[in-house]
Design a protein that fits this description.
The chain has three domains: about 230 residues, Dex49a from penicillium minioluteum complex, domain 1, CATH 2.60.350; about 90 residues, no CATH class; about 150 residues, 3 Solenoid (Pectate Lyase C-like). The chain is built from four helices and 40 strands. Strands 2, 3, 8, 9, 11, 14 and 18 form a seven-stranded mixed sheet that branches. The longest helix is centred in the N-terminal third of the chain and has 11 residues. The chain is globular, with a radius of gyration of 25 Å. It binds 2-acetamido-2-deoxy-beta-D-glucopyranose (6 copies). One 2-acetamido-2-deoxy-beta-D-glucopyranose (NAG) binds next to strand 33. Keywords: Signal.
């Protein structure tokens, strides 16, 4: 009884004593208990510089993680493998798969990241009750306490404690929707700076004198355009698949084709007549010159209950072009993508994505987009760590939602030219920004709603919309942006100009409402007159739209 009261009133002592009583399992032991499932790879290779050996899985060179379920009385921390991804998979900027001598200096979207050893890591577990995640840093001599750690999105309000021995503990409440977050050690942040204070610049570094984009001394004339972990660590806690959801095919029936760990039988899978494909647990590999094209008989591809699937492009070259021998050849139609390898210009795909608890890591490269959402798609509770277009909507009746809103935790832009915005609709594939007479007033974008978006840190502006069609009924509500980079970068500025058709007839704009928009805690409204391009809001909206009330900022 006494202990209980003490616990209620002095929570800190409870934590300390909880930690003291904890056991951390030896070796590579994982949890496979009712309340917790973790994974490990004995083929983990700690190597943040070069490609990993065939059969191996890249393991974080910075972080170790363990998970404890509060549902167990034995207070045991189990290993949870921390995966790692590095720029260009350590291959350098090469063109031909597996050929280190095929290097190029053509831009592939990586600027300084490989030179300054930016890495991104994650771990993943399944849980049915609240859990603690224990994190330690390998080989670090720095003393860290809970006060040195920030969890983002910060609105999750997760409890962080330490044990005085440089181990950090994060409390992860159980959620049916899963919990996805970033653990950020404040002595492991990288400040991205531009080569200049003006609008078209690249990131620069002062670390590697013979590396790319080097300048000997960074000064205030090199605008800060982002601050992120140097070695990111993302934690993904997921509920087990619902027992009632019929997502796990029976692997003993003839309709199911079973794939065993090792080399994936790519050509067999393209011609099978089975309906299901079942990947047994373990590491499945494909060469850098092949990708999976399931036979049209296949309805689904899901791993077994209590397991999750992680796929990694570890062996591919960047922009692997499926029509060009998987060489690095940028193509919006043919470059490899996670689903549906081919995209036909001007044609709506019928591929519909319904997904939840999807996670994506590794935002080094300019073309790591989020998932493409065609008409009818519905996604929720997802985590994107992407280097380009994140939520991509192509079509109608698409829903993207998260009960707590959309949290943007890392965002950096080196240039005004890249449409650096939270919400964007642009013309770049078809027209130059000066060809303002190329709109088509026979088409209308109608009834689009964006709500509850919060961006942390230095980032882009609210919106860059080039209206190529009429706009009717757009609501942007409850958006807060923490900070812009210095104004001379131009990145802060939202754009919504007037476009016309070839005869000079402007598109029509009606019911475009921006409501409860904040920048740095200041609410931006027309009434407060702080919305303009040179004011706090940075909104460069065509004068006529504001004058006739077709766009309102309230
Ligand atoms: C444990 O896993 C590591 C990789 O992280 C591996 O190097 C080691 O050999 C494994 N130990 C055993 C006993 O398999
Ligand atoms: C960490 O703390 C220990 C014990 O207080 C101290 O001896 C050591 O110098 C500290 N290390 C660093 C890098 O500050
Ligand atoms: C660049 O930005 C910094 C920080 O705002 C400012 O102090 C400096 O004067 C600027 N330099 C130029 C050349 O604009
Ligand atoms: C658009 O929204 C309006 C107002 O809510 C509604 O009356 C109309 O049916 C919607 N149109 C479409 C195409 O969904
Ligand atoms: C927008 O924020 C306001 C004020 O915080 C809140 O009352 C409203 O419910 C929010 N809207 C939505 C759609 O959540
Ligand atoms: C930034 O880019 C936008 C869109 O390309 C352009 O309209 C604007 O003039 C640019 N701003 C600056 C300050 O260069």
């Amino acid at each position: 009884m006494w202990v209980r009261c003490l616990a209620l009133f002095t929570a800190a002592s409870l934590w300390t004593s909880t930690i003291a009583a904890d056991v951390t399992v030896p070796g590579n032991e994982t949890a496979d208990i009712d309340s917790l499932k973790t994974w490990w790879h004995n083929t983990g290779e700690t190597n943040y510089k070069t490609p990993v050996q065939g059969g191996n899985v890249r393991q974080s060179h910075v972080y170790l993680a363990w998970v404890k379920s509060t549902a167990e009385s034995i207070d045991t921390y189990y290993n949870s493998f921390v995966y790692e991804t590095i720029p260009r998979n350590g291959q350098g900027n090469i063109v031909i798969p597996g050929d280190p001598s095929s290097g190029t200096t053509t831009d592939d979207g990586v600027t300084i990241e490989a030179a300054v050893w930016i890495t991104m890591a994650w771990t993943q577990f399944l849980y049915t009750s609240d859990a603690w995640v224990k994190i330690s840093r390998r080989g670090s001599t720095a003393n860290v306490t809970a006060a040195d750690v920030i969890i983002r999105p910060s609105n999750l309000g997760l409890e962080v404690i330490d044990d005085g021995e440089n181990n950090i503990y994060v409390f992860v409440p159980y959620s049916d929707a899963g919990v996805r977050f970033s653990v950020e050690f404040q002595d492991n942040l990288y400040t991205y700076r531009d080569s200049c204070n003006t609008t078209e610049c690249e990131f620069v570094q002062d670390w590697v004198s013979d590396g790319p984009y080097y300048i000997p001394e960074l000064t205030d004339d090199n605008a800060i355009t982002g601050i992120e972990p140097r070695d990111a660590l993302l934690i993904f806690a997921s509920p087990p698949p619902s027992p009632t959801a019929d997502f796990v095919p029976d692997r003993s029936v003839p309709e199911t084709y079973v794939v065993y760990p090792g080399d994936v039988p790519v050509s067999d899978l393209a011609s099978i007549t089975n309906v299901n494909v079942y990947f047994m647990p373990g590491v499945h590999e494909m060469a850098a010159t092949e990708h999976l094209m399931l036979s049209s008989s296949v309805n689904w591809r899901v791993q077994s209950k209590r397991r999750v699937s992680a796929s990694s492009g570890e062996k591919y070259v960047y922009q692997a072009n499926t029509a060009g021998g998987y060489t690095n050849m940028d193509s919006n139609g043919e470059s490899l993508r996670i689903w549906s390898g081919h995209s036909t210009s001007g044609k709506q795909q019928t591929f519909t994505l319904t997904s939840w608890d999807y996670k994506q890591v590794g935002a080094f490269f300019g073309q790591t987009d989020g998932t493409t959402l065609y008409s009818g798609s519905n996604i929720h509770d997802v985590f994107y760590h992407s280097g380009d277009d994140t939520i991509k909507v192509y079509g109608s009746e698409i829903t993207v939602r998260d009960p707590d809103g959309i949290e943007v935790i890392h965002m950096r832009y080196s240039s005004n030219g890249s449409h650096p915005s939270i919400i964007g609709a642009n013309q770049v594939y078809e027209y130059a920004e000066t060809e303002t007479d190329t709109a088509d007033p026979s088409l209308t974008v109608r009834n689009v709603t964006f709500q509850n978006i919060r961006a942390q840190g230095v980032g882009g502006n609210l919106m860059r919309i080039v209206p190529l069609t009429n706009y009717e009924g757009v609501l942007i509500e409850n958006v807060s942006l923490e900070q812009f980079s210095v104004r001379t970068t131009g990145i802060y500025r939202s754009e919504l100009p007037v476009w016309t058709d070839g005869s000079g007839q402007p598109i029509s704009m009606s019911g475009f409402v921006i409501s409860n928009f904040n920048v740095g805690g200041v609410q931006i409204t027309q009434a407060a007159n702080n919305h303009g391009p040179n004011d706090a809001g940075g909104l460069n909206i065509a004068y006529e739209y504001l004058a006739d009330g077709s766009v309102t900022i309230i």
